[in-house]
Amino acid sequence: MSAVGAPAAGTRAAPPQAPADQGGPGRTTVPDRVLAKIARRAAAEAGAAGKASETRARVRRSVAGVSVAVSVALPYPGGVLDAGRAVRDRVAQRLREYAGETVLRVDVEVASLAVRRTTR
């Protein structure tokens, strides 16, 4: 008598089957440190003064999506409110575009103003 599930003598076992498709290709999770780096670079793209490495970003993840807080220096003189909105919008756009994240909120803290030098 053979064991249950064992192939009969002289036959081969069927190859293992791939798991059934569960409705999608799967999920890719991007680490928070990578999301923070994307946020810092996006803030620099949007016109934050200084280098991306000088901008700070914190990411909080929940089941619904991510919330980001960025701390930036903005050029002065200039419209601080408009510049802050540009940073917020660019950060959200880049996180959606590059990481596929649902962005719940982007808080922008203006840590300092960088005075533009003008020549006369």
TrEMBL record:
Skewed-composition ranges (Low complexity): 1-22
Residues of the region (Disordered) are 1-31
Protein name in the entry: Putative alkaline shock family protein YloU
Q: Which organism is it from?
A: Nocardiopsis composta
